[in-house]
């Protein structure tokens, strides 16, 4: 069974422990940043930043809310990037965790097409077009550990485990959170393995908090390839 | 903390004020979240909306420096609406005590005030004017009905009658409906079985009225019956993992280990010293625990000087330094003396005064007067490199600086004591890098060399150095176990205590065994019980909870005193020994009873604050063999009236040294009449001055630590918070034509710091008096040494030269600034 992460943004304090833990585990270099008039930094995900806590100040129902959204790859159950790449040497699904993994071979793909296929706008390219994003810390998980970001979270906003269990935790939690946040919802819970719970309109947290219809999905040619997918894969073995 | 971190989860209402726990104590939020999951309410009171506020049920803004007005209003609200816990207040606090006729409060001044002509202290009080009235036996007169006009309770009512909503709101800038919401929600914890807690930090302490802010909250907690109970207490979130430990072991000038007093010059002998500082009571129901004072002071001297400490030489009392009566030696005073050229040598050990000291320009200037400085740190910092800092001419500075590279915390073995008083043993991880060494090694060797030097070359007053025991080493290296055992203490001869033979050289089981005759040693009586013949208690890691299941985990680490996890816990039960809170009880009396009387002694749950019988039998008859629960107080009662403080027995609102209002709306005393204000050429300030129209405050962020010595060289943290910044409201930005993200100057009477403007909805102008007051905030994590541009400077270049009269902590949380475009 695939693994899932549950991220409860109603508990997240925006401490960004997860953002640093991710860099530390993956030995990712820091970016040269500048304070742009907010605490959020870097400004966006990048080839060197797989996890980013997005921060937004919004007035909702006459009350100021500071919204934190620890953004990362959702490890979609049907992953458009994987289908678009159609090359298991470049993008494959780790059988043990269900994680969608990018390899160095992504260099040979059409980076913009892959990025464009992601409904959550996650993958980022290096100068040489190699793509990178969250790998669900599958190396850690294979060795019995939880992902770095989940381990470090001090408030308990993140949980990790078998998809069934995590999904049921998420649903139960939603029921409870609704008492306080009537608009609370889970974001695309049936489609992704990184399930967010938000208290307000997801658009307020991040442009692509929910799968966006204006991007992603499969182009016609990809859909065609997908239809032939199992056959080609068999051929390749 | 009177309670501890895990205990926050037992609370029904958490007030976070004077701290920003989500950002600066992130782990605490695990327990805050747990409490909230069970329905607890979270209140955040802060000049700006923080990451803590973002999680709160109620957020209320207040102008920096007006906390006493805010809390005074809460006291009035509790009294007016009879929401205090009458039974608790009457039984356990000094609310029933009758205050002597000499006590008076008039227009901002308590009786006994005298202006000080010389400074730095503005004035002082003759505290004898605040004494209680005594009966013929020498016991304070009490009226448990709380009706007597001169009772603490009635005086309290009169004092805070002035703190009505209108006035409080006018001073604090907090909208009235927000005040009411906070008061109402917190007051609900006065109900029996409910508990409210306060999490505070430097946002409360760093004011000229810092001590009194905390007193005001302690008074609220007493009125609500929140002291001693699970999920209650007065909880200081310490700013470093081991600040609690270092304070316990005498980080501060005015206390010896275990909160014994530093002797004054007038304490000319051990007997005078002990007599002066040992409180006495005539009340048989008062345990007056400090009555044991001589046992602790003598045991400490035995620990320092070993065999050389004998009765005949007053256990070496004369070898210890004395401070001049009436003189202070705080951080402020050290640098004031250094600035005046009175201090020639300086160890900066694990600190960075060039960035952390208030009015840092004076601190940096003072260092130029040093002959030498030893900087013990893991990295070079603005202090060690002060001579090449901004505006300095290295060719003119003759201070010789030595850098001793220190091992980082994980590279050494030893203990830390966290905010919850838990002493936790840590093993060594990796070995120290290069030639860096553990602090213990450095100080051991320093002591050894000093001893050698005094022995061979002589010197003035060699006795203290030569007689120092100084033997906490094994194979030539510092041995943390030996030091920890020394702190616990040994029997120094075979003695019979409590009918038990204790062998010389064995560890003392707990401070109840300590003696004043030299037969025991203990480096710190509060820690006696931490390392016994049963082993190192602080290294325990059992995850078993106590029978009450409230998260005490009594066998995980060790906690002072005697592993009591919640202090004042005998106030968590009624006079008959039954917990007020039946569900989350801390202790309960479980002795046998016969015919309505208790006949055997037994408490269960936490280690009780003394194992005496309860005050009353089940049939309501009073017992003579009991003690009042607040055993550390002379009269056994918690102090709503606090006659021991330097600046008054009741907290009173005064404006900060620098404030935006000309007049204190509560009295004609604008600032704390006992505040400490320094007076050299560099100690300038400007209040209600059009050049500095905005209130400024300093704070921390999650991403950095202290002056940033450990975090600024860390690229991942710098990535998240790269630059010095100033946060301000949209209105203020508009007023000054400042755009979000643009660089600006923040200036106070003392200096200017360049910052990136964060224009945010999280700051809002206050309506104070009849005017609009803007406030801004800056973090104090930066310094010129790193990042390499040298432009990100310390916020303490802005902060004022004034402090609290009780502690002399600087007023870095409220001062006046201007903000201008570059
Ligand atoms: S799961 Fe691992 S790779 Fe993904 S965001 Fe968390 S720490 Fe980073
Ligand atoms: S570590 Fe947890 S609390 Fe902190 S930002 Fe990440 S998800 Fe939020």
Give a brief rundown of this model:
The complex is a heterodimer of chains A (237) and B (822). With 237 residues, chain A is of the alpha+beta class. Chain A has helices spanning 17-26, 80-85, 111-117, 138-142, 148-152, 163-177, 220-236, and strands at residues 3-8, 52-60, 63-71, 91-93, 100-102, 124-125, 131-132, 158-162, 185-187, 194-198.
Please give the largest β-sheet of chain A: 4 strands, mixed
User: How many structural units, i.e. domains of chain A?
Assistant: 2
**What's the helix count of chain A?**
7
Kindly state the percentage of residues in helix of chain B.
10-25%
Taking the sheet with the most strands of chain B, its summary is: 6 strands, mixed
Which radius of gyration of chain A do the C-alpha atoms yield?
A: 18 Å
Mean pLDDT of chain B: 97
Question: Ligands in the structure?
Answer: iron/sulfur cluster
Question: What letter string, H or E per element, gives the SSE order of chain A?
Answer: EHEEHEEHEEHHEHEEH
Distance between the termini of chain A: 23 Å
Which regions of chain A contain 5 or more consecutive residues with pLDDT less than 50?
230-237
Spatial strand order of the main sheet of chain A: 8-1-10-9
Return the CATH topology of the largest domain in chain A. Answer: Alpha-Beta Plaits
Key structural traits:
heterodimer, A: 237 residues, alpha+beta, Alpha-Beta Plaits, 4-stranded mixed β-sheet, two-stranded antiparallel sheet, 7 helices, globular, disordered C terminus, B: 822 residues, alpha/beta, 6-stranded mixed β-sheet, 5-stranded parallel β-sheet, binds iron/sulfur cluster
How would you summarize the topology of this molecule?
The complex is a heterodimer of chains A (237) and B (822).
Chain A: E1 3-8, H1 17-26, E2 52-60, E3 63-71, H2 80-85, E4 91-93, E5 100-102, H3 111-117, E6 124-125, E7 131-132, H4 138-142, H5 148-152, E8 158-162, H6 163-177, E9 185-187, E10 194-198, H7 220-236
Parallel strand pairs in A: 1-10
Antiparallel strand pairs in A: 1-8, 2-3, 4-5, 6-7, 9-10
Chain B: E1 13-17, H1 21-24, H2 28-37, E2 41-45, E3 58-60, H3 67-80, H4 86-92, E4 105-106, E5 109-110, E6 113-115, E7 123-125, H5 152-160, H6 165-172, H7 176-187, E8 196-200, H8 202-205, H9 210-223, E9 234-236, H10 243-248, E10 255-256, E11 260-261, H11 270-277, H12 293-305, H13 331-339, E12 345-349, H14 353-356, H15 360-367, E13 372-377, E14 400-405, E15 414-417, E16 422-426, H16 439-457, H17 463-467, E17 473-474, E18 477-478, H18 480-488, E19 495-497, E20 500-502, E21 531-532, E22 535-536, E23 558-559, E24 587-589, E25 593-594, E26 597-598, E27 603-605, E28 676-677, E29 694-699, H19 715-720, E30 725-728, H20 730-736, E31 743-748, E32 751-759, E33 766-768, E34 771-773, E35 775-779, E36 802-803, E37 815-821
Parallel strand pairs in B: 1-2, 1-8, 2-3, 8-9, 12-13, 13-14, 29-35, 30-32
Antiparallel strand pairs in B: 4-5, 6-7, 10-11, 15-16, 16-23, 17-18, 19-20, 21-22, 24-27, 25-26, 28-36, 29-37, 31-32, 31-37, 33-34
Helix pairs in contact in B: 3-6, 3-7, 3-9, 13-15
């Amino acid at each position: 069974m695939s693994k899932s992460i549950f991220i409860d943004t109603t508990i997240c304090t925006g401490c960004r422990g997860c953002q640093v833990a991710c860099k530390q585990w993956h030995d990712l270099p820091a970016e040269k940043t500048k304070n742009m008039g907010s605490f959020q930094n870097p400004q966006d995900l990048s080839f060197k930043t797989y996890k980013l806590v997005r921060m937004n100040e919004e007035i909702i129902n006459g009350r100021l809310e500071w919204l934190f959204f620890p953004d990362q790859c959702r490890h979609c159950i049907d992953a458009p990037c994987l289908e678009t790449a159609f090359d298991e040497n470049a993008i494959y699904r780790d059988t043990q965790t269900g994680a969608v993994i990018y390899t160095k071979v992504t260099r040979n793909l059409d980076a913009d097409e892959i990025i464009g296929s992601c409904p959550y706008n996650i993958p980022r390219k290096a100068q040489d077009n190699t793509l990178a994003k969250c790998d669900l810390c599958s190396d850690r998980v294979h060795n019995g550990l939880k992902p770095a970001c989940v381990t470090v979270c001090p408030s308990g906003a993140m949980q990790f485990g078998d998809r069934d269990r995590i999904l049921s935790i998420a649903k139960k939690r939603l029921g409870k959170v609704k008492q306080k946040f009537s608009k609370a919802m889970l974001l695309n819970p049936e489609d992704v393995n990184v399930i967010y719970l938000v208290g307000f309109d997801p658009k307020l947290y991040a442009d692509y908090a929910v799968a966006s219809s204006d991007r992603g999905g499969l182009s016609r040619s990809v859909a065609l390839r997908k239809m032939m997918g199992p056959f080609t894969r068999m051929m390749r073995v | 903390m009177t309670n501890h971190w895990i205990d926050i989860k037992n609370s029904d209402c958490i007030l976070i004020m004077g701290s920003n726990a989500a950002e600066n104590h992130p782990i605490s939020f695990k327990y805050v979240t747990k409490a909230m999951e069970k329905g607890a309410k979270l209140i955040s009171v802060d000049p700006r909306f923080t990451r803590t506020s973002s999680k709160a049920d109620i957020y209320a803004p207040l102008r920096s420096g007006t906390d006493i007005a805010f809390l005074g209003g809460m006291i009035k609200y509790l009294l007016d609406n009879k929401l205090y816990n009458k039974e608790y207040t009457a039984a356990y606090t000094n609310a029933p005590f009758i205050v002597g006729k000499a006590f008076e409060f008039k227009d901002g001044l308590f009786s006994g005030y005298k202006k000080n002509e010389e400074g730095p202290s503005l004035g002082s009080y003759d505290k004898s004017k605040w004494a209680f009235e005594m009966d013929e036996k020498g016991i304070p007169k009490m009226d448990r009905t709380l009706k007597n006009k001169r009772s603490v309770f009635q005086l309290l009512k009169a004092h805070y009658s002035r703190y009505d909503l209108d006035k409080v709101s006018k001073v604090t800038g907090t909208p009235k409906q927000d005040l009411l919401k906070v008061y109402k929600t917190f007051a609900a914890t006065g109900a029996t079985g409910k508990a409210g807690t306060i999490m505070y930090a430097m946002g409360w302490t760093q004011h000229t009225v810092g001590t009194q802010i905390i007193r005001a909250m302690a008074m609220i907690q007493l009125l609500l019956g929140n002291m001693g109970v699970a999920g209650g207490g007065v909880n200081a979130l310490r700013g470093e993992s081991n600040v609690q430990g270092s304070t316990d072991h005498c980080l501060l000038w005015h206390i010896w280990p275990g909160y014994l007093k530093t002797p004054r010059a007038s304490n000319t002998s051990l007997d005078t010293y002990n007599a002066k500082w040992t409180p006495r009571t005539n009340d048989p129901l008062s345990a007056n625990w400090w009555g044991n004072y001589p046992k602790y002071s003598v045991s400490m001297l035995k620990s320092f000087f070993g065999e050389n400490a004998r009765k005949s030489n007053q256990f070496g009392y004369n070898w210890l330094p004395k401070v001049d009566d009436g003189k202070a030696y705080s951080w402020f005073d050290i640098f004031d003396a250094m600035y005046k050229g009175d201090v020639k040598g300086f160890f900066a050990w694990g600190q960075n005064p060039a960035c952390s000291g208030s009015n840092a320009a004076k601190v940096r200037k003072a260092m130029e007067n040093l002959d030498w400085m030893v900087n013990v740190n893991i990295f070079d910092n603005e202090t060690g490199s002060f001579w090449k800092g901004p505006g300095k001419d290295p060719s003119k500075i003759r201070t010789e600086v030595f850098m001793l590279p220190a091992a980082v915390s994980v590279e050494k073995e030893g203990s830390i004591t966290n905010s919850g008083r838990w002493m936790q043993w840590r093993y060594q991880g990796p070995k120290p890098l290069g030639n860096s060494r553990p602090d213990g090694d450095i100080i051991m060797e320093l002591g050894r060399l000093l001893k050698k030097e005094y022995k061979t070359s002589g010197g003035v007053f060699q006795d203290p150095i030569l007689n120092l025991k100084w033997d906490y080493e094994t194979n030539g290296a510092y041995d943390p176990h030996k030091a920890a055992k020394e702190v616990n203490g040994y029997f120094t001869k075979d003695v019979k205590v409590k009918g038990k033979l204790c062998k010389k050289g064995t560890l003392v089981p707990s401070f109840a065994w300590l003696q004043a005759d030299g037969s025991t040693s203990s480096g710190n009586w509060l820690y006696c019980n931490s390392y016994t013949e049963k082993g190192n208690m602080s290294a325990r890691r059992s995850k078993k909870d106590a029978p009450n299941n409230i998260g005490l985990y009594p066998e995980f680490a060790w906690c002072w005193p005697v592993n009591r996890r919640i202090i004042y816990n005998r106030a968590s039960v009624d006079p008959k020994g039954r917990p007020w809170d039946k569900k989350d009880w801390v202790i309960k009396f479980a002795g046998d009873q016969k015919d309505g009387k208790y006949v055997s002694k037994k408490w269960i749950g936490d280690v009780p604050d003394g194992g005496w019988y309860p005050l009353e039998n089940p049939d309501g008859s009073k017992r003579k063999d009991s003690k009042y629960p607040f055993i550390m107080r002379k009269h056994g009662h918690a102090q709503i009236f606090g006659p021991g403080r330097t600046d008054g027995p009741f907290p009173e609102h005064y404006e900060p040294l620098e404030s935006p209002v000309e007049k204190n709306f509560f009295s004609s005393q604008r600032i704390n009449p006992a505040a400490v204000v320094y007076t050299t050429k560099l100690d300038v300030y400007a209040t209600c001055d059009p050049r500095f129209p905005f209130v400024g405050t300093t704070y921390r962020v999650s991403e950095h630590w202290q002056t940033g010595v450990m975090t600024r060289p860390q690229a991942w943290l710098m990535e998240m918070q790269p630059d010095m910044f100033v946060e301000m409201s949209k209105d203020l930005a508009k007023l000054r034509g400042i755009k979000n993200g643009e660089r600006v100057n923040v200036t106070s009477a003392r200096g200017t710091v360049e910052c990136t403007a964060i224009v945010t909805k999280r700051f809002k102008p206050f309506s104070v008096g009849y005017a609009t007051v803007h406030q801004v905030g800056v973090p104090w994590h930066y310094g010129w040494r790193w990042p390499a541009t040298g432009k990100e400077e310390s916020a303490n270049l802005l902060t004022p030269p004034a402090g609290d009269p009780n502690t002399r902590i600087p007023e870095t949380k409220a001062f006046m600034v201007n903000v201008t475009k570059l």
